[in-house]
Amino acid sequence: MIWLQFAILLAAIFIGARMKGIGLGVMGMVALALYIFLFRMRPAEPPIDVMLIILAVVSTAATMQAAGGMDYLVRVAEKILRSKPSMITLMGPLVTFFFTVFAGTAHVTYSLLPIIAEVATKKRIRPERPLSISVIASHLGITASPISAATAAMITILPGGLEPIQILKVCIPACLVGILAGVVVVWKKGKELEKDPVFLEKMKDPEFAAELDAETKSDTKPLKPGAKISVIIFAVAVLVIVLAGAFKGMLPTFEPGVANLSVNANGTIKMAAVIELVMLAAAALMLLFTRTSTTEVAKASLFTAGAQAVVSIFGVVWMSATFMAAHETTIEHALGDMVTAAPWTFAIALFVLSMLLFSQAATTKALMPLGVLLGIAPHNLVAMFPATNGDFVLPGYPTLLAAINFDRTGSTHIGKYLVNHSFMIPGLVSVSASVAAGFLFANLFW
């Protein structure tokens, strides 16, 4: 029976992934309905805490976007990228990484990818090189961000009152090591543009050649009056969250009682609640001080992307958690000996599941509780956290597709066999190196 139920889970994931958008979420609900009404499986707890964090963070990021803050950040990033065009393969991924760390979502990199592609092309650097590793770097930034949904899920799952700073001091340097390893493997990847037959064929078109070498002026449209203010407010909010996690004495404590979504049984306030409170309060301050309309926030692309993420995580994580809970003993018995002997093998399971779920937060929420159940030490689970970045393997993630579309030379591509695409090698190297470095830093800093 377990194999039939597992087949239903995989079918829901595959069909939902092909549907894209909210597809994963709604197909997860279909599978969950079968589990409950057909197989009489007891439903697990839905991932309410992660969903609320995503809503809070995305709403605040969307408010900053509506206030013009994202436009301001993109202009700053553009100056950095254009200052050293010959180093675009290194500068591109570093900028996208820190952008994601700051904003908590990889969707902020859409504005940077065309700049990276243009700078590389004009310098006659194969755009595949900086674009591929820049996309991977943006994904790794999610597992190094203090306000990402994946990091928040880790905080709620790991035992012992884990602080965000404990995750950051391991994952930030580990992911940077992984990115640098990825930069090394793509530095001379593929043929130079002058020797690439696809590019040379396109250059035979005079219109294409003229357009490629034309001077592209930066966007000189005036920034909205509250653009810089919104960035400052967002930055202060992120800083407050990090400090609150590092210095628990800053937070109020209450009388012990029944635990809820906001407070633990011992009376301490949950970090998830702190993130939600600070982020939405920051959004309110942006609206007040920048005079941004709430209608503009609702129409922002980040808000739409966040709403889709909430639906997806709601369905697919609830489905996965119900399956895991129903077969907890069987799964623990099957994986227990292997994970006890070699804890790092759990990273393989995280990577494989993330390939299917296309979400670091969903993978974390679905599988990390199993790691806790199997007795894996918290510092080892944090070391393996970057392994949840397997969403590049199947080339259907929006950032991958965007990078391919922005590369006018055609060097960034999906191969004949689907998985032999431009992002596979830098992705495998970067994630593997990040996990390996994670174990090193976890043992040094924990």
From TrEMBL:
Membrane topology designation: Multi-pass membrane protein
Coiled-coil features, chain-numbered ranges: none
Alphabetized GO MF terms: C4-dicarboxylate transmembrane transporter activity
Primary localisation category: membrane
Signal sequence, start to end: none
CC terms in the record's Gene Ontology section: plasma membrane
Chain ranges passing through the membrane: 6-38, 50-68, 88-110, 131-155, 167-187, 231-251, 271-290, 302-321, 341-359, 366-387, 423-445
Keyword Lipid metabolism among UniProt keywords: no
Subcellular location(s) per record: Cell inner membrane
Alphabetically ordered keywords of this record: Cell inner membrane, Cell membrane, Membrane, Transmembrane, Transmembrane helix, Transport
Family, similarity comment: Belongs to the DcuA/DcuB transporter (TC 2.A.13.1) family.
Protein name: Anaerobic C4-dicarboxylate transporter
